[in-house]
Design brief:
The chain has 6 helices and 9 strands, in the order βββαββαβαααβαββ. By secondary structure, the protein is of the alpha/beta class. The strands form 2 sheets. It has a 5-stranded parallel beta sheet, sandwiched between helices. The chain has a 4-stranded antiparallel beta sheet with strand order 2-1-4-5, with no helix packed on it. Strand 4 and strand 5 form a beta hairpin.
């Protein structure tokens, strides 16, 4: 399974002429892990939004023969093919950390509840899992959002700066679990970063 990106651009963004993505014709394969590095202001989050159908753009993005565009019905793709970790996380702040994950899992029935609790333990969130997300640090919220992403069936896991507020210890633990989840599902991984590679294995690193 691949994501095809053809001559992508944004009408309001002046892009780097040396970009490996903007204006290019390329294919992302689920057999590979991709790191996209981008300086601030280069359209990193805008590219993420294009991939998940949240932003109008010039050019074409195709997943499984279906055009990814806000004008299209993407419910099938978002339900079965993509799992997303947004930079702003999109958590329900008045729900507890655990309920944010369980609500997602009730929609997908993808993980056993015991597995979810084991992930909270692995990610160091047991003590705060019943706290409202609004009372958590941003780093704790990032860990919750990543667990929630695992509750989604996916052929692609796409993440926008998921480790920006985590220290090296937690990045090492969580990156290993991300690689485990992606490998188990034979899925592809695309991570956007301001420049860090987080010590993970990347098949391709692209400069936005």
């Amino acid at each position: 399974m691949s994501i095809q990106v053809q001559h992508l651009s944004l009408p309001y963004l002046t892009t780097n002429t040396n970009s490996a993505i903007w204006g290019q014709d390329l294919s992302f394969s689920t057999a590979l892990h991709y790191l996209i590095q981008a300086p601030s202001g280069s359209g990193k989050s805008s590219f993420f939004d294009c991939l998940c159908g949240r932003k109008e753009h010039n050019g074409t993005i195709i997943l499984e023969g279906q055009k990814i565009d806000p004008k299209q019905d993407l419910s099938g793709i978002l339900k079965e093919d993509l799992s997303l970790v947004f930079q702003d996380l999109n958590l329900f702040e008045e729900l507890s950390a655990l309920d944010n994950v369980l609500v997602k899992n009730q929609l997908t029935n993808h993980l056993f509840e015991e597995h979810i609790h084991s992930l909270f333990d692995l990610f160091g969130l047991v003590a705060v899992k019943h706290n409202k997300c609004s009372h958590l640090s941003f780093g704790e919220q990032q860990r919750v959002a990543i667990i929630r992403a695992f509750c989604q069936p996916f052929k692609w896991l796409i993440m926008d700066e998921p480790f920006s507020h985590l220290d090296k210890e937690w990045i090492e633990v969580i990156s290993k679990e991300i690689e485990t989840q992606v490998t188990k599902r034979n899925a592809g991984l695309i991570m956007l970063s301001l420049g860090e590679d987080y010590g993970m294995r990347w098949d391709k690193t692209l400069q936005l």
